[in-house]
Amino acid sequence: MVAPEVLTIGRVSVDLYADEPGAAFTDPQHFSKSIGGTATNVAVAAARLGHRAAVLTKVGADPFGDYVVAKLESFGVDTRFVGRHARLRTPLAFAALTPPEDPELLFYREPSAPDMQLEIGDVDDDTIRDVDVLWLAGSALADDPARHTIVEITRTRALRRHTVLDLDYRAPLWTSEREASAVIGRALVIATVVLGNRAECRVAVGTDDPDDAATAILEHDQIELAVVKMGGDGVLVATRDGRTVVPPRPVKVVCGLGAGDAFGGALVHGLLLGWPPVRTVEFANAAGAIVAGRLLCADAMPTLDEITAVIEGGTP
Predict the structure, then answer these.
(1) Which of 263, 252, 264, 204 is nearest to 212 (CA)?
(2) Distance, first Cα to last Cα, the chain
(3) Over 90: is that where the pLDDT of 52 sits?
(4) Class of the CATH domain delimited by 6-311
(5) pLDDT one-digit tens code per residue, 249-308
(6) How far is CA 100 from CA 32, 173, 197, 292, in A?
(7) Which of 37, 119, 217, 272 is the most exposed place for a label (fewest CB within 10 A)?
(8) Which sign does the torsion angle of CA 30, 35, 41, 45 carry?
(9) Sign of the dihedral through C-alpha 280, 123, 181, 257
(10) Surface-to-core class of residue 198, CB atoms within 10 Å of its CB (0-12 exposed, 13-18 middle, 19+ buried)
(11) What is the pLDDT of residues 262-275, one digit of tens each?
């Protein structure tokens, strides 16, 4: 079997998105079904851009688990590392567009989620060492055994380029922000590339000031690139050679979910092609803007032609 170019590790769920903007969960609603979770969406986004992408996660031994696997395969994502848990059910995530820019999320992951049950042996050491991009979602560190497993995976990886930590803080998945800060902050030592928004940077390094956060991230000698997403203020790209703010791309937001994951998949594209950081983030920013103007996450991930058209002057 052909080896993947990128392996993402983390959450998966069946996502249900409200079709009616502005309607709360207490209102009558219709929902559109797809799949989601940061690691899942980034793998789909990278596959949509022509890369061999795989995801390390777990689903339940239930019909929704069957749906997740079939949906991933329809997107061209390698599912050899998608495990099945005999007892825990495939997670659900509901989104109400209240407002569209920052939807209300409701997770069903109790008593735990299959993707928190990752164990040593769920992925082989050769893949961990050899894959060109290893993408770790911070939310996957929220509980054991996944937390311990990811630490062991990164020991096997031994800080090879490119080991990416997406800070990916989701408050409902943690017992407290204090715990998340401690765990995600310690995880900076396992990465060579780190990205997150202002709030995620506050959790990881104690400040939401973009420049201060980038400085704190780059204090770790092995980190080559820090990317701080600043919403309407653009994206800060920071390396030891300098800093650049990539301006935002105006878009009428349909759903704020998934834009960051489209950004991530496009960032993977630039890393794999060896692009300079600023070019990579400009490309990723265009991808994120496209998905912000669409309802779903995984289904909405853009093609290379769509991103190129936006960069060349089109509208998302």
Answers:
(1) 204
(2) 36
(3) yes
(4) alpha beta
(5) 888 888 888 999 999 999 999 999 999 999 999 999 999 999 999 988 899 999 999 999
(6) 15, 22, 18, 9
(7) 119
(8) negative
(9) positive
(10) middle
(11) 999 999 999 999 99
Question: Taking the CA of residue 246 as centre, how many other CA atoms within 13 Å lie in the half-sphere pointing to its CB?
Answer: 24
Q: Which residue has the tokens 């995530």?
A: 93
- Return the half-sphere exposure (C-beta side, CA atoms, 13 A cut-off) of residue 99: 3
3-state secondary structure the chain: CCCCCEEEECCCEEEEEECCCCCCCCCCCCEEEEEECHHHHHHHHHHHCCCCEEEEEEEECCHHHHHHHHHHHHCCCECCCEEEECCCCCCEEEEECCCCCCCEEEEECCCCCHHHCCCCCCCCHHHHHHCCEEEEEHHHHCCCCHHHHHHHHHHHHCCCCCEEEECCCCHHHCCCHHHHHHHHHHHHHHCCEEEEEHHHHHHHHCCCCHHHHHHHHHCCCCCCEEEEECHHHCEEEEECCEEEEECCCCCCCCCCCCHHHHHHHHHHHHHHHCCCHHHHHHHHHHHHHHHHCCCCCHHHCCCHHHHHHHHCCCCC
Calpha distance 105→114 (Å, rounded): 19
How many residues in the chain? 316
d(CA 237, CA 245): 6
pTM given for the model = 0.96
Measured CA to CA in angstroms, residue 24 lies from 98, 113, 169, 171 at distances of: 6, 25, 23, 20
